[in-house]
Specification:
The chain is an all-alpha fold and about 45 residues long. It has one helix and no strands. It has a domain of about 25 residues. The chain binds zinc ion. Zinc ion binds next to α1.
Length: about 45
C-alpha cells in the first residue's frame, strides 16, 4: 500500500512537475486580470 502521489497539476490533473502547470498558470493569471479589469469597469459605470 505504498501509493506515491504523482506530481500532477492541481487544476487540470495532468502530469506536471509543478503543482500548477504552465498552461493553467497562464489561464489563472489571465482570469485574474480579467476579473480585475471587470471590477474596474463595473465600478465606473
Ligand atoms: Zn494544469
Amino acid at each position: 500500500m505504498a501509493e506515491k502521489k504523482k506530481p500532477v497539476c492541481m487544476l487540470c490533473g495532468r502530469p506536471s512537475l509543478k503543482s500548477i502547470c504552465d498552461a493553467c498558470a497562464q489561464r489563472v493569471q489571465s482570469e485574474q486580470l480579467g476579473k480585475k479589469a471587470q471590477r474596474e469597469k463595473g465600478g465606473k459605470e
